[in-house]
Fold this protein.
Amino acid sequence: MRKRSLLSTAAAYPHIVWMVLFIVAPLLFVLYYAFTDPSGAFTLENVTALGSHKTTFVLSIALSVIATFLCFIIGYPLAWIISRADPGRQRIYMMLIMLPMWTNLLIRTYSMMAIMDDGGFLNGILAALHLGKVHLIGTKGAVLFGMVYDFLPYMVLPIYTVMNKIDPRLTEAASDLGAGGWRVLTKVTMPLSMSGVVSGITMVFVPSISTFYISQKLGGGSFELIGDTIERQFQNETTYNVGAMISLVMMVLILISLAVMNKFSDESEEILP
Amino acid sequence: MKTLSKIYLWLILALLYIPIIVLIVFSFNKSGGTGGFTGFSLYWYRELFRNAEAFSALKNTLILALAAACLSTVIGTAAAVGLEKMKSRHVKQVILSTTNVPMMNPDIVTGISMMLLFVFVGGMLGMTEKLNFFTLLIAHVTFCLPYVLLSVRPRLRQLDRALPEAAKDLGCTPVGSFFRVELPNIFGGVMSGFVMAFTLSLDDFVISYFTTGSSYQTLPLLIYSMTKKEVKPDIYALSTLIVAAVLLLLILSNVLGGRERSKK
């Protein structure tokens, strides 16, 4: 009996080996590189090198927090509206929301550039209307717009999924007991959809804080985000170590914010019966 | 209220699609930029089709996606079966959490972490080309695995445990029972895991960017290198073709999915 159970769990062994080799080991390498110099000797120099990237970190965190917030503000009502449409329509709306998600991020970002470029679509229209020109590429607003545009579906999808699972009898009961539309939304739907909001926030925040393509294209190289800094360090073998340290710090930052958020959402769920 | 929410919904949808529509329209533009439409032309498509690089990138992308999807589906399905039979909950949880690391971690960190491993090991082995097709394949299988497990495990848990037991009592070996009893019952999950892995691999740019060498270029990497140079509408043409392919696949899978549902 014992032998048989060992034999069947053996099916998982290739996966376990793969995981150790290609998930755990690479992360240990990040750690190793972060605390060594190019010759392989232990050093804390990379930690002090972080000081010169402080403004990049602050800017990245600020932009990704704002982008996540905007996605929530835009995406939550959207998910709510879709979840209240009739079922046949819901499928179509969700497909329309998800189609851009299946289009490559590079293409979506590039299409934004075609619109916002100095000689682009928007300026073409403005010129035709004799309204002068707007310079958008290279501004922080353009990067922010790109993040919201690229990642909005990631916010809508999980919130919609959770809302769709809410028992309609709960909202009906609330309105039967005299709650208005707004009260039903804030007292019933919102608390019950918190888990969707949390995964939506995660799915927008993580790619926003680590992006380098959006800032490269829409930022026009006029400022750097963490992703750009990391990407630049890995162009050249002598700066791998600093790059590893910056990646490590970003990873820890994300882990801490996810842990805080999960704790927060657990607490809000405990309030509910 | 009803009309207000309708307006809001369609406004957001319009905003989501305007850039893509602009891109498609201007891929047929006679002149270069996106400032104004000067006339219909297929010039940029002809230019694209003359580009041998684009065709080899397309071929590379499909080969890689197929290989990564097959490998991750086999390893992931086996892992799901093995995990199901594992006694210790604690061990199972550790394995599952570790598997999900590439799903939670930013792509750039997953990419550079694997690149550091490959470069280090390649350096120790004295390889001249440390990053190549195989490092790219390893990376893709790694980020596909959590999604395969995610779609196979629920099906496996729904499976009546008495079925494989009965097969074994009737003299079936564990392997035989897997192919005759378990696999047919979880096949839908295995297939959706495969499709998921395939599309994720097709779409990936960031992880590929760090784990491939100069010898193996995929479509997203080609788009990236094209957008690094001056803006030329052949990228619009390429993107239009990709969007059309995605749309076609989505419609196809929806029609097929709809037929499946109505059969049941």
